[in-house]
Specification:
Layout: H1 21-26, H2 58-75, H3 80-104, H4 109-136, H5 141-163, H6 171-186
Helix pairs in contact: 2-3, 2-5, 3-4, 4-5, 5-6
Length: about 190
């Protein structure tokens, strides 16, 4: 049985619809609405007002941390030094939550551990750049310290999840999360 192969051609393929100036005018330009200072929160519950399933929902916590970093970055005055620091802190501060979401959808134990290790690295990097921003803008140092504390807690949580070889899904991290929160608030055992 012989099969026919299509002979390659150098002729350019053309669209079925002719490109006209009228068609270009029909395109509508999407404009973003002005964002207020109020935080925008997306809840995935059926009525949109449900609280998280667990009081220490790490996915929600990392999302709120990312939102707080974005709001904080808008307060920082723009100059050549700060521009680089702002880009870095927004990048690593918001990717913690993204990597955590990706870790929860991991296909294998190895994939999960890889994503959690990224969360550890990004939270550590966030701490560093928040420290640099506090040095660059002393008037914002107090707010940077608050975000630094949260980044430190997230770093400890993800480092403890990563350190457990039997941790292969999110639920195993909840007990560790509670233990770390207790240690941070009440001190060592």
């Amino acid at each position: 049985m012989s099969t026919k192969h299509q002979v390659p051609t150098s002729k350019r393929q053309r669209s079925a619809k002719p490109k006209t100036a009228e068609r270009a005018k029909d395109r509508r330009v999407f404009k973003y609405r002005v964002v207020t200072d109020e935080p925008l929160v997306l809840n995935e519950g059926p009525n949109g007002k449900e609280a998280s399933k667990h009081p220490f929902d790490l996915e929600e916590r990392t999302a709120r941390f990312g939102e707080a970093i974005v709001r904080f970055s808008k307060k920082i005055p723009r100059d050549p030094t700060n521009n680089r620091l702002i880009d870095q802190v927004v990048g690593c501060g918001t990717s913690i939550g993204g990597n955590h979401c990706e870790a929860n959808e991991g296909v294998s134990k190895r994939d999960f551990r890889n994503m959690i290790s990224r969360c550890v690295k990004e939270s550590k990097e966030t701490k560093f750049f928040l420290r640099m921003l506090a040095a660059s803008e002393p008037q914002l140092a107090d707010e940077a310290r608050e975000h630094y504390r949260e980044a430190k807690e997230l770093h400890l949580i993800f480092a403890s999840i990563f350190g457990r070889p039997e941790a292969n899904h999110y639920e195993t991290g909840i007990d560790i999360n509670l233990k770390i929160l207790w240690m941070l608030e009440l001190g060592p055992w």
